[in-house]
Design goal:
- The protein has 401 residues and is of the alpha/beta class.
- It contains 15 helices and 15 strands.
- Helix 3 packs across helix 6 and helix 4 runs parallel beside helix 6.
- The radius of gyration is 21 Å and the shape is globular.
């Protein structure tokens, strides 16, 4: 059995836990449903992405063809950048690009995987859509976009409106983005992998904290860190352990330094630890976090928490989309300091239906191809066991403190 080349486009490899989690979820899904397909992931940092996703799909290849085109033209006005991207994709003529661009022409589909990276915060990333559409115009490849976070509304690329013209399937992960672009409201792509992540790790009870310093309004970092510190002090007074979880190396360390006197280093969980051993998730936790995917995954496990907004028009939309699904978390969007909710929301109880909805979307995009006896790869079989929860749960060690 062979299926056509599947080309994924996403912001992987920086690393950023949410972005990496989404890419990994799609790769695991494709390992189960399309193990014989050649899968290419186009991302900004292919070197680290190759390490992060090693073994997740038996025929994975990683490149940065489209992302390099976008980044190398990011300083030009969008109209000029779009013209250059289209000309390069269709006309070739550069030894530094041609082999990657020819590989694009082999794709049966080009799939913009989920995340909040095509919006006014990073308007140059609309160039990814320009490049994808240029490929489609030549080859007829299917264009797909799932779980998109599109707010704040893109205004810097008027020539590309409507943004997803020519796409065969598009979903936004929040109502605002769906309404703005006239597309279907779907779910974040993390719902493809949430069950496996919850099953992967045994989490110690306690308060879990993560406050970012990147992609934040200037005045928000200090107030958000103060809110988190207050929660940690309260937990300590009640004899509850506090842990600090890192989603982006370095970017999440700054807030930890402001409360390191309250949270010992052995309870600082770096990105490398949670990526290797799993994000600790359980219904015996409370959280204070600005990270969207920590909100989504922890609430799905039944944890209570406070979601902290860091950038108006961006993070408030993201966190509100999880609250709308029933997270039950309090939202600290401005200078307010809400109390920790006393009860979990409905997201855990409704999780099965959300996962089923996301898997149905994935199956519509990549319908299963019938395999001949003996053709399913051993890698795919092992991943199937992981998806069914048959692998041994990892015990996360936080230290003796």
């Amino acid at each position: 059995m062979q299926s056509g080349l599947i080309y994924l486009v996403g912001p992987s490899g920086n690393p950023n836990f949410g972005d990496e989690f989404i890419a990994a979820a799609w790769l695991k899904y494709l390992a189960l449903e399309r193990p014989d397909a050649e899968v290419w992931l186009d991302c900004p940092q292919p070197g680290l992405a190759q390490v992060l996703f090693d073994g997740l799909h038996p025929r994975l290849r990683v490149t940065n063809t489209l992302w390099r085109l976008v980044h190398e033209n990011a300083d030009f006005p969008f109209e000029a950048a779009a013209d250059t991207i289209r000309a390069r994709v269709t006309g070739l003529g550069s030894p530094t690009y041609d082999l990657g661009l020819l590989k694009l022409r082999e794709a049966e589909s080009l799939h913009l995987i989920g995340g909040g990276y095509i919006n006014e915060n990073w308007s140059q990333h609309a160039g990814l859509v320009v490049g994808m559409r240029a490929v489609r115009d030549m080859t007829g490849a299917r264009l797909i976009a799932t779980g998109q976070g599109l707010m704040p509304l893109l205004t810097s690329a008027p020539a590309e409106m409507p943004l997803f013209q020519g796409f065969s399937h598009v979903t936004a992960r929040d109502e605002a983005g769906a309404e703005a672009y006239g597309i279907d409201r779907g779910l974040d792509d993390a719902f493809l992998g949430v069950n496996a992540e919850i099953a992967r790790t045994e989490a110690e009870p306690g308060l879990y904290v993560c406050i970012q310093s990147d992609t934040a309004d200037a005045e928000r970092f200090e107030t958000a860190a103060k809110l988190a510190r207050t929660a940690v002090e309260k937990a300590a007074g009640e004899g509850v352990k506090a842990f600090y979880v890192e989603a982006i190396p370095g970017g999440d360390r700054a807030a930890y330094e402001l409360m390191a006197d309250l949270i010992p280093e052995e309870r600082f969980l770096p990105f490398s630890h949670i990526w290797t051993h799993g994000l600790p998730l359980s219904d015996s936790q409370t959280w204070v976090t600005s990270r969207f995917h920590f909100h989504l995954l922890a609430a799905a496990a039944g944890a209570r928490g406070i979601a902290v907004g860091m950038k108006k028009g961006y993070y408030d939309v993201k966190h509100e989309s999880v609250a709308a699904l029933g997270s039950g978390w309090a939202l600290a969007m401005d200078g307010d300091e809400p109390q920790m909710p006393q009860h979990s929301g409905s997201l855990k109880a409704d999780l099965a239906s959300f996962v089923a909805q996301k898997r149905a979307e994935a199956a519509k995009i990549y319908p299963r191809l019938e395999a001949q006896p003996g053709q399913r790869s051993s890698n795919a079989t092992k991943l199937l066991g992981m998806a069914l929860g048959t692998t041994r749960r990892n015990k996360v060690r936080h230290g003796a403190s």
